[in-house]
Give the backbone structure.
Amino acid sequence: MNQTRILITGANGQIGSVLTQELRQRVGANQVIATDIRDPEQKTEGPFERLDALDSERLEQLIRQYEITTIYHLAAILSAKGEQNPRQAWQINMESLFNVLEAARSHQLQLFFPSSIAVFGDNTPRRETPQDTIMQPTTVYGISKVAGEQWCQYYHKKYGVDVRSVRYPGIIGYQSMPGGGTTDYAVDIYHKAVLGEPFDCFLSAETRLPMLYMDDAIRATIELMEAPAEQITVRTSYNLAGMSFSPGEVAAEIQRYIPNFTIRYAPDFRQKIADSWPNSIEDSRARADWNWNPEYDLATMTSDMLENLRLKYEVENA
Ligand code: SER
């Protein structure tokens, strides 16, 4: 039997670091090759290899060396950071995707490609945004994800590549920090609250965005990848929903546990990006095709985040 051997790009990132751990638990530490452009801050059990996802030769070498069967391609420049150097963000996001698509084609690998709510734009229906709708994004990140989705579908139809994808909303977890995104505030706010510090929010109090707790995000990713191929009817990318909230709402929820927590609002360029994204997402296709069902809402997520971050900071200060 062909044993699953996984390679993850961007394995030091917000999602990558948690996904690596979870996959190692499931299939064995040595079956999951973590790769990133930089060495990890903390050594973890299992192989790590340095890989610039733009380097197709090195990717090819690692696939052969480890007899890889599956790639989770998480390396990317996110929405806010991408705006600082759009050409570079486009090059990194697209070239790296072509590298893994080509590798998947020539080695018959299964591939996971993360898309995003950033594929939507100002003229997309904002509430309960449907699976199939207008996609005219305002950021280079969003453009790269729309194009990426189309390329994934193309490789599936033309070459039979088993590529699967979800449109992640903002991802919130205690395990890791995001970087360069528009939804990053929703992680940072919990850290500040636990540390007893005030929080300066770069979005306005009412900006509602779709969000998902890390546990749900990881479970969705693995469930999608493990679903029988005939159940996968979307080869661009699945809408995926968990919850929706605004900075004002999450602050109020935190104040139920930490009454003197304070938040100040100073919207910056990211406000415009957030304003172009949906308030909420309609994800019935994911529910129907591979039984997607989120477990966490704002209340249960907040209690779990605060508990775990308290533990984390206590351990660090002990
Ligand atoms: N969390 C991402 C961002 O803010 C959205 O995919 O860029």
Notes: Residues 68 and 227 are 19 Å apart (CA to CA). The chain has a mean pLDDT of 97. Residues 86-107 form the longest helix (22 residues). The longest strand covers residues 110-116.
